[in-house]
Amino acid sequence: MNSLLFVPLAIGALVILKFLLKNINWWLYESQFGGKKYSLPPGDMGWPIVGNMWSFLSAFKFGDPDSFVSSFVSRYGNSGIYKALMFGNPSVIVTTPETCKRVLTDDEKFQPGWPETTVQLIGKKSFIAMSYEEHKRLRRLTSSSINGMEALSLYLTYIEEIVKSFLEKWSNMGQIEFLTELRRLTFRIIMHIFLTSETESVIETLEREYTSLNLGVRAMKIDVPGFAYHKALKARKNLVAAFQNIVNKRRKERKENVSRKMKDMMDALLDVEDENGRKLCDEEIIDILIMYLNAGHESSGHITMWTTVFLQQHPEIFQKAKAEQEEIIKRRPPTQKGLTLKEVRQMDYISKVIDETMRLITFSLMVFREAKSDVNINGYTIPKGWKVLAWFRTIHLDPEIYPNPKEFNPSRWDNKISKAGEFLPFGAGSRLCPGNDLAKLEITVFLHHFLLNYRLEQVNPSGSVRYLPHTRPIDNCLANVKKCSDSSI
């Protein structure tokens, strides 16, 4: 008799245990709201502690990233707003242009809400954790050198020279990790803008540390050897030490009145002061540098790789893009030696190719905000202190906005005027990525010379893709860069 009772009792105990586990997060995060809980967005908080992170990570790590949001849609309907427990915090995921626009542009109701891991790695004094007023002031100062094509015209010659040099070098190297090499290229460019005079050995050291740092930015907070977050913490420590040495060196040069031929962003950060005459401390300067140098090469490196791959995969698009570049060369005066800003602005089709790549890949699949007070969106309440995840990837792959969304089709941008919130490769609002113009200029210059003179031969063109922290081939695009024998220049 006892043995006959054991099985149903065990099953009953498991059912009760599952019920309790599934409702612990409700008790922790929702029960306190009383009647207000009924206006929370639909969704669930997942399991205790881990919340919805296992389903998020499994979706992205096993090759079906869109299944994470689609699982909410299938269970709770297409409301475009869902509650979840993400990165250790009660959160609301927003997936429509209208909701994302509201979250990104309403600075009175929302502030940055990045996960603790990201803030720890990028820096508590960086833009991602700064108050609105402080961010506005420092952004205005620091973005002046990398925002707007007119400002970037100062760097056009350098960018073109280093692109040509790297392409020539790669064509003689045989098999390379194309993504790794592109990241080195874009890192050299951002280093030139921020830290002009640093040596090659310093640049190589910093670039290696940034690779480890970036892999841990959106990892779970597991500070144990072997895990991405632990490696990233060590990388940050090394970066802080390296930048502190650079800051010390610059301050010493100033005391000794050592003149510098060219001013860079480090000089600007050392010079800036607020209305009360307060200058930035070393910690503020270093965190801003860590943030800018990380963001300033990762996105442009990845998007350049994917744009090149897509062009090579679509010969008809490649030829159309190449013809545009050949026409620019034909119109060029014989005395002109390199690209001009005017020519870059004439590259209409290449601009569409880049936009289509940024839409299809969505380098930053989401950004994080936090509700500063209770906020009502579409009849749902986002409680004060809850995180809000603006999920760009879902918008960029919405078939109602972009028909056949997983097709690479630059011509979809012909005469297309995107509504607010429909195209968000660099975010929106006051915290729009300040390096967007620099990234697009780098990609454009690279494609100009690649299309005219080179082709890419991937070793594993159908190889697996990794989606975290950013979409990339698992082999980092192992390939050969071949120089064309019929190059026109």
TrEMBL record:
Cofactor: heme
GO cellular component: endoplasmic reticulum; membrane
Keyword Iron set for record: yes
Pfam families named among the record's database cross-references: p450 (PF00067)
Intracellular or extracellular location(s): Membrane
Pathway(s) per entry: Hormone biosynthesis; Plant hormone biosynthesis; gibberellin biosynthesis
Keywords annotated in UniProt: Heme, Iron, Membrane, Metal-binding, Monooxygenase, Oxidoreductase, Transmembrane, Transmembrane helix
Entry superkingdom: Eukaryota
InterPro entries linked to this entry: Cyt_P450, Cyt_P450_CS, Cyt_P450_E_grp-I, Cyt_P450_sf
Residues given in the record as heme binding sites: 433
Single Gene Ontology BP annotation: gibberellin biosynthetic process
Entry keyword annotation includes DNA-binding: no
Stated family: Belongs to the cytochrome P450 family.
Role according to the record: Catalyzes three successive oxidations of ent-kaurenoic acid giving gibberellin 12 (GA12), a key step in gibberellins (GAs) biosynthesis. GAs, which are involved many processes, including stem elongation, play a central role in plant development.
The protein's name in its UniProt record: Ent-kaurenoic acid oxidase 2
Provenance organism: Senna tora
